[in-house]
Amino acid sequence: MTDVTNDRIPLAALEHGTPFAQRHVGPMPAELAHMLDVIGVGSLEELGEQAVPAGIRERDLNLALPEPATEAESLDELRGLAERCHPHAEMIGLGYYPTITPPVIRRNVIENPAWYTAYTPYQPEISQGRLEALLNFQTMVADLTGVPVSNSSMLDESTAASEGMTLVRRAGRAASSRFVVDADTLPQTLSVLRTRAEPLGIEVVVADLSEGVAGLPEGDFFGALLAYPGASGALRDHEELISEIHRRGGMAIVSSDLLALTLVRSPGEIGADVVVGNTQRFGVPMGFGGPHAGYMAVRKGLERQLPGRLVGVSVDADGNQAYRLALQTREQHIRREKATSNICTAQVLLAVVASMYAVYHGPEGLRAIATRAHRMATVLATRLREGGVEVVHSDFFDTVLTRVPGRADEVVAAARDAGINLRRVDADHVGVSCDETTTRGRLTAVWQAFGLDRGELTDIDELDARVPDALPGVLHRESEYLTHPVFHQHRSETSLLRYLRRLSDSDVALDRSMIPLGSCTMKLNATAEMEPITWPAFAELHPFAPAEDAEGLLRVVEDLQTWLSEITGYDAVSLQPNAGSQGEFAGLLAISAYHHDRGESERDVCLIPASAHGTNAASAVMAGMRVIVVRCDDSGNIEMDHLREVVDAHRDDLAAIMVTYPSTHGVYEDTVQEVCGLVHDAGGQVYVDGANLNALIGLARMGKFGADVSHLNLHKTFCIPHGGGGPGVGPIGVREHLSQFLPNHPLQPMAGPETGVGPISAAPWGSASILPISWAYVRMMGSDGLRRATLTAVAAANYVARRLDDHFPVLYTGAGGFVAHECILDLRQITKDAGLSIDDVAKRLADYGLHAPTMSFPVAGTLMVEPTESENLAELDRFCEAMIAIRAEIDKVASGQWPVDDNPLCHAPHTAVSLAGEWDHAYDRRTAAYPMMGAGTDKVWPTVRRIDGAKGDRNLVCSCPPLSAYEG
């Protein structure tokens, strides 16, 4: 027997398990050594010294973060914080309701990496599952709202309403700058509307529309927002009011509850031009405010004005129906400062949940859920009336507003003692909202809170039998909805499970391949980070519940704000923005407010480098700024002479410059401090887009090298998964002089400074329920782990650049020939010589089992590659070897060995069906399907062939998958 006692590892070394950083960072030490050898440096530290400009690099930076915890320790700490959260039975309403997420959807969508690690479906041939699920969402929304075209989700209801406001302004003919808002609108929506309206010169006029047409203000207005039902619960017929709005030259936006629309007439039937709202109560937990999928749908004629993402129906090369994102999905990159919206993301993962909730329940199930919630509210109201409590509205869906003069605090307190949160409207009014989780016992407890005697449960049945509905007859819905078979075929869990699996098998996510998308940072979303987000203690919190109910989650918020401040060098952080675009907007509002506070309101010029992300320019315009583009030189850097020229020309009106660092070209520009100095000397502020923060952590801090404000993409650098194109979180960090201008919220004073710019998202802390993901990432990585991740990401990009430079020239490098965390491969001349396109290369990668990098951004005809730190050497090499093999295929076309119109690139991707039929090509089947690998190894089988993009742009009508998709 072998004696191993002398090789025994000390207990102390084993006590805490493997450090998380070793699990998160892909390359093992020997692999990393090989990568560094190829790059030509001796260590990660040497790479950092050579790649990062000395002027911004903080040597031996030891971030003041807690010592790293293991996965088990982090989860234990989060469990302890969860125990400090106390969700009540939430009957507050205001757009957020308890809901039951079917376990089959929770486990197989929210908790399934095939869904949550996918990226935006920019490669539709390997995204058909997500696209079909989103088409279901669009059809669901269009059917229920009664208008023909819906997008594939918005960030939340309040921002959807704000986007609706700007849509009707640009689409309408009215010269007025006034926008009318129903006084019964959700208070958070009214506040977000005001935040959005001010920089655009829109005057928000709040009107009491309870009396219909008589409530409209005199004079012109370009549009109006009507609540249906209202925040108070009141349900009113707006048809005559909408007709009058149209007669006076305006357009009507209706904010509506989709569950209510299963019972009441659709907004489209009463004349709405635009319908907005939220799908949260379709199986998506409240999560202290998000993330949830808002929605927007429009009448015919407004399709091309619709912001956000829209799935179009097209065909593939064989004529089969296929889906793709329509053109406006990328309009920011094309139109920049002329874009109609800065939205660059959606809430795809949550939209999928909501759509599958409708698929699972179908129209009958949704109607039954809605009917039960309505009947609970009706019985509740009747007993209150009979007990002497005044019920303000006779017509309502699920919310009962009571008048209890001087007793509101007493009633709310008594309900809390019984474990129920009600809405305190004011000292005299209390609101009570019912939902699919409302029980008979809960109604009894509410009656007791109002001072009524405890009723027997049998009394509820007696009340239900004799009390009529509270829905006005004129609003009873008679039109059909959700008629497509997809909403009727998956009632059993077995059927839905297989449907979800079929869809996810049609996609490529991080569970199947690296996704080397430049500017997108598709890194590991560790299971230990993801696990807490579905814990009831976090998921079932109402965003407007008393703050003490969420003590544990607010500690997560506080910790994350502190840690992000330390990581970035800023003095304060707001976590409210629920997307990167929202962070941009919030940061620019802070800059504008700062100038106004100093009496320099004339400062409204925003300088933006030509290489910048398209949302930068769109956000600047939304913030009321004028955009001036600064040229970039042949190396991709800001052209300093041109910058000096425009700064000198705008010393009196310069507000800011927006800089992405490292640059969008993937380079550490060594002039960044000079850029900051020039702008500051002219009285402007410096905004650094934090999309590329993954190349800076532990090496340099924006708040220390000259920036004043940055947004940070937690869904990039800090591991919140992209979810197929959402959710995201885009908090902002600011230096001290801007901290008083961070976002705040009217319903949660703790959410921001009293002097803030107002809310820019519906919920006080934005997408609060997914913040534990980033908390866990920082907690488990610690200072050294984060620095190691950054340096490894930079090493991975330089390794790919070195390996591929001889085959595809790397377009931009910094001093010493190094890139940052991403590199741009120039395919323009190569593909031109062969008569091929960048699309051909991207589609061919699917045949190699890989997702394509970012195409044609920021330079047309190029691929931007970002490997991240979490891919190991084998996966990096798999990608490099595939690209090298594709280069050899391109050469065969260029040399004439394969015809330009018959080669594996122009016909890519290849489906199994296409290989099974007749074969009459200049290349064989094996070359088509298995160009580099043995059969079955890492094979991706796209379900469709090359999709006709132009047809998808033309066909924007929402329509579920064809019946043939369900045959058999």
Automatic annotation (TrEMBL):
Name what cofactor the protein needs. pyridoxal 5'-phosphate
List, alphabetically, the Pfam families matched.
GcvP2_C, GDC-P
What is the catalytic activity of this protein?
N(6)-[(R)-lipoyl]-L-lysyl-[glycine-cleavage complex H protein] + glycine + H(+) = N(6)-[(R)-S(8)-aminomethyldihydrolipoyl]-L-lysyl-[glycine-cleavage complex H protein] + CO2
Which EC number(s) does the record attach to this protein? 1.4.4.2
UniProt cross-references to InterPro entries, sorted A to Z: GcvP, GDC-P_C, GDC-P_N, GDC_P, PyrdxlP-dep_Trfase, PyrdxlP-dep_Trfase_major, PyrdxlP-dep_Trfase_small
Class of the enzyme per the UniProt entry, highest EC level: oxidoreductase
GO biological process terms, semicolon-separated:
glycine decarboxylation via glycine cleavage system
Q: Write out the GO MF terms.
A: glycine binding; glycine dehydrogenase (decarboxylating) activity; pyridoxal phosphate binding
Keywords (alphabetical) are: Oxidoreductase, Pyridoxal phosphate
Q: What does this protein do?
A: The glycine cleavage system catalyzes the degradation of glycine. The P protein binds the alpha-amino group of glycine through its pyridoxal phosphate cofactor; CO(2) is released and the remaining methylamine moiety is then transferred to the lipoamide cofactor of the H protein.
Similarity remark: Belongs to the GcvP family.
Database matches in HAMAP family = GcvP (MF_00711)
Q: What is this protein called?
A: Glycine dehydrogenase (decarboxylating)
Classification lineage: Bacteria, Bacillati, Actinomycetota, Actinomycetes, Pseudonocardiales
